[in-house]
Design goal:
By secondary structure, the protein is an alpha+beta fold. It has helices at about 50-65, 80-85, 90, 95-100, 125-130, 170-180, 180-200, 255-265, 275-295, and strands at about 10-15, 15-20, 25-30, 35, 40-45, 70-75, 100-105, 110, 115-120, 135, 140, 150-155, 160, 205-220, 220-225, 235-240. It is globular, with a radius of gyration of 19 Å.
Length: about 300
């Protein structure tokens, strides 16, 4: 179902997530069934998508906590969650269909940088390479194939745009925004999380081609926030069918992107509606990604 929350204390309604205040220090983050492509929200909901995003983020926050702290505290549908967090009225009356797609997190000061790590050349990076021989402005070797692994993962940050398309950022632009020390932390931490997750996923039949992360500052400490290593924020490829030189079989929203590209849509609002079979097959891909990575069925 398409969760359109009518709860009080809303702070932000994003493309996919709705965020609510739980006092001064905590947030309730709801992953809806909305889906975006090319930075435009589509009119359709994707069944079970919000629950997958919520659960898979929680899974990865716990798995990577040894690498970097994060904002995750608890899933909102665990027993006695309201009493654990001060019996906040919002938690006491949270509808079950919303609770299962929500988590309680610490409130941090977001850094306006999308921290993208690319292990393989695909998507917009492949398009840029074909046009200019570069990826995020960095010169690349000649003769790369679509889907080929880079010798080392690339850190290709972008702006965090509230609307429209994010823009590539140079290293100096990141330094100018957050300072030299934090800029170095963003790159090193992003790469460390990606490399850990890549190895973990590969053992479970998924190639983690690339991903994007967000960070914030809490009491002066850098922490991971928002979502983490989901089918929305990452490219998950089927390892069994992986072969450089073609579009890869996937468990993410590339299926939706490919459908929209086939329509010749100009990637500007309003977005076209998705047919029922595309919605159903997208939902199935998200559920399969969750099962493969966690070993559990939703």
């Amino acid at each position: 179902m398409l969760i359109e929350t009518n709860l009080p204390n809303i702070l932000h309604r994003g493309k996919v997530r709705d965020t609510f205040a739980l006092g001064d220090d905590l947030l309730l983050m709801v992953a809806t069934d909305r889906i975006s492509a090319f930075d435009v929200v589509l009119p359709n909901a994707i069944p079970e998508k919000g629950r997958v995003l919520n659960r898979i983020s929680a899974f990865w926050f716990e798995k990577t906590a040894h690498l970097t702290p994060n904002h995750f505290l608890a899933l909102a549908d665990v027993p006695s969650v309201a009493s654990r967090f001060g019996n906040h009225p919002l938690l006491r009356r949270l509808p079950p269909e919303v609770a299962r797609q929500a988590m309680i997190v610490q409130r941090a000061r977001r850094l306006d940088v999308e921290c993208i790590v690319r292990g393989y050349i695909a998507g917009s990076a492949w398009g840029e390479y074909r046009r200019q021989g570069t990826v995020s402005g960095q010169k690349m070797p000649k003769g790369l194939l679509e889907g080929q692994a880079f010798p080392e993962p690339l850190f290709t940050p972008t702006t965090k745009a509230e609307s429209g398309h994010d823009q590539n950022m140079t290293h100096q632009q990141v330094v100018d925004l957050v300072g030299q020390g934090v800029a170095r932390q963003l790159e090193e931490t992003s790469k460390a999380v990606y490399q850990f997750a890549h190895e973990y996923a590969r053992q479970r039949g998924i190639v983690l081609a690339d991903t994007k992360m967000e960070f914030g500052l809490l009491d002066g400490q850098l922490i991971l926030i928002d979502e983490l290593l989901t089918p929305d924020s990452s490219r998950f490829w089927d390892a069994a069918g992986y072969e450089p030189g073609k579009s890869q079989p996937n468990y993410d929203k590339q299926f939706v992107r490919d459908y929209l590209l086939g329509l010749g849509w100009n990637q500007q609002p309003p977005a076209p509606a998705l047919p029922e079979d595309v919605v159903a097959r997208t939902s199935q891909r998200y559920l399969e990604a969750y099962q493969k990575l966690t070993g559990e069925r939703l």
